[in-house]
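sorry to bug you again but im stuck and you know this stuff better than me. what follows is a protein written twice so to speak, once as letters and once as structure tokens for the fold. mainly i need to know what kind of three dimensional shape the backbone takes. anything you notice is useful, everything is just below:
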Amino acid sequence: MRSAIVLVLGSFLWLFIITTPGECSKGKWKLLKRSVGISAMHLALLPNSKIIAFDRTDFGPSKVPLPHGKCRLDDLDQALRKDCYAHSVEFDLRNRNVRPLTVLTDTWCSSGALSSDGTLVQSGGFNDGERTVRYFSPCDDCDWVEDGNALTVRRWYASNQILPNGKIIVVGGRKQFSYEFIPKASASDFFVFQLPFLKETKEDALLENNLYPFLHLSPDGNLFIFANNRAILLDYTFNRIVKRFPVMPGGVARNYPSTGSSVLLPLVLKDDPDVEAEVFICGGAPPKSNYLANKGTFLPAAKSCGRLKFTDAWPSWKMEEMPLARVMGDMILLPTGDVLIINGAAKGTAGWDVGREPVLNPVLYRSGFTYYLEENKFEVMNPSPIPRMYHSTANLLPDGRVLVGGSNPHQRYNFSGVLFPTELSLEAFYPPYLTGTDAAISRPEITVPGGSKLNYNQRFSVVFTTKEKVRDQDVYLTMVAPSFTTHSFSMNQRVLVLKTSGMNRVSGNSYVMEGVAPTTAVLAPRGYYLLHVVVNGGIPSRGTWVHIK
């Protein structure tokens, strides 16, 4: 009886969140799929606009069988030696169909990136997956292809970044204070480069607050790396640290298991060849939080954020405070250049059953890079009814929604008798630019994308329509790189604000905007991007895929 009451109340809450009048400016939520059969610990968007999700192979039986009666035989598996269930799925955004995929090695706490041809390259994991690289191509009947010895050393809790030359750098991992490159095309690619910085940023011999380091490709071609509370700029070609940055104030650990999140704020491209780059890091927990949480004491998460313009000659942290404390939150760059902070908890840390007090309300952060906002601003959005705790994910969709899935803080699938049951659903958050009073009137639609293939520094035209007149100064173009999300970090996430050279009215409310593609692969590594037109203070079109090379 009690379960039935909870179900009815939950259904009512969904209706309330989606339909309450006067709250549209705070965004809304929609359940896309009650169950995709697995818990989406890892999430990626492919250039065919389909979603690839996967968890780990040793969670036990999932809720979706492997296709064609296949079974995975693995003597090392900690749950099932013979496993006939899928641990990866493809989710079709158009019809919400789920296609089970076959992953053979353990993907637990692994990393990934989208290659220049749109293939998902996915690396590392646990147990028999710790040195594996997996490939998934965006086609209708493709499945995972795995290379079990493609990493030189084991990589568990590492981070990836696509580079200007098309290679992917894999940094860190548990007990790995080094980096290497994939895929392996030559003998030198099998070298492992030591990075003592990762050992220096461990909290002490017992604690690790530097796993899943935050990686961002700098406009000068070097790699910004943040771990725990410190950051460096690494010349990965010659394995030398170019610059060390000030310690981030506040005494908060920001990386797993004191998990905060990080984004590279939009890169504004202009005539000046020196493009400024600023990192934005939010949330986390006090350094000893994970140790104490495992003993039953759950410390409050951090409310602090920091911005660091690391391309400045003498950079310093500018600290801000979120309206809600958060650990295990995902920071998602929107096509407007603003940031959505979503998922997570108010107490404890990442790890098995050590998070408490789910934070159901996303927060929108106005990054302030455009003309329409003179100062930065946090705004609390409408809540989801579903707690998204450890092993939850989020990812930007082509139409501007944010997909949310996952949450399983248990060592197996567990659906009852626990604080936070395993979550198999996918839901979408609609930011205010899709739900506010101006959205229906102002939202532009791209009718001619200017070609799906671009060369660097190429001039191109984008034709779009709106239901109301717009001015040249009220329109800008963005290119958004698709990301790979796990453990509160969206790897390779990137927004470029393109240089434009004017706009003309074609007829009625149809306009043509002249844009200029990024000049080099250092600014935009070759590959697939979503092109958006943004009008009237932050209302984006649906993205259209472009490929730059």
